[in-house]
Amino acid sequence: MSEPAYQPPTPSAVSPIVAGLACRCPRCGKGKLFGGFLSLRPRCDRCDLDYTFIDSGDGPAVFIILLAGFVVVGCALVVEVKYQPPFWVHAALWIPLIAAVTLLPLRPMKALLIALQYHHKAAEGQIIGREQK
């Protein structure tokens, strides 16, 4: 009796990184995830995945704020030390940069964390008690 031919494993889901950065459904990778800027749709319009399990919390905002703070403060310090401009120049430079480096990546970062949550089947922790007799 001959052995069956080797078949490489088929991917069971889309890449969470691709789905997240494209702001698509974490299961099918085709349906839209967001209904507004950061508000989620109730379910996927392609595969009908219910989005009620999603809880990204403040994680995306924290990552963005830490990275944005590093970039903006570093740039502001370099400009201050090299050129010593008046305060209005700092306001003109850094307010738009702060808006850009915080708002632009917020939506893809939230979608990425949602896709990773789905991929790893992360859920809220539960306390398992002893069985009562």
How do you describe this structure in short?
The protein has 133 residues and is mostly helical. It is 47% helix and 0% strand. The model is unreliable at 6-10 (pLDDT under 50).
Structural overview:
- The protein has 133 residues and is mainly alpha-helical.
- It has one domain.
- The protein contains 4 helices and no strands.
- α2 packs antiparallel against α3.
- The longest helix is centred in the middle third of the chain and has 25 residues.
- The chain is elongated and about 60 Å long.
- About 4% of the residues have low confidence.
Count of individual beta strands = 0
Q: How many structural domains are formed by the residues?
A: 1
The residue ranges in which pLDDT falls below 50 over 5 or more consecutive positions are 6-10
What is the number of helical segments per DSSP (H or I, 4+ residues)?
4
Coarse shape: elongated
Helix content: 40-55%
Cα radius of gyration in angstroms: 22 Å
The secondary-structure element order is HHHH
Secondary structure category: mainly alpha
The major pleated sheet works out as: none
Percent of residues in beta strands:
under 5%
Mean pLDDT: 88
Measured between the Cα atoms of the first and last residue, the distance is 54 Å
